[in-house]
Design a protein that fits this description.
Helix content is 17%, strand content 31%. It is globular and about 45 Å long. The longest helix is centred in the middle third of the chain and has 11 residues. A 4-stranded antiparallel β-sheet has the order 1-2-4-3, covered by helices on one side. The mean pLDDT is 82.
Length: 90
Amino acid sequence: MWTAFGGRSKYIIAKIKNHGETIPNDKLERIFDKFYRADEFGDSDLGGTGLGLAIAKEIMRMHNGTITAESFEENTVFTITLPIGNNMQE
C-alpha cells in the first residue's frame, strides 16, 4: 500500500496493489457493481457475494472520495482518493 499527501494537498491518495490474475477490461468496468463477480463461472474457491467493492465505492462516495481499479501484468491496483477534512455527506 502506498499513500501520498503533503504540502497543501486537499486529498489523501492510497494505492493498494494485489498480485494475482489480471482482470480483463470488460470485467474491470463492472467490479464495483452490486452482486457482480469477475469469476461468475465459479472459477474461484474463495466464494463471495459481489458486495465488497460495491460497499467500498458507496463508502468513498459518502466521504466525497473515489475508488478506481486498473489491472495489468498479473497485478490489480485500487486507488482510493479522499478529501482531507470533514467533508462527509449527510
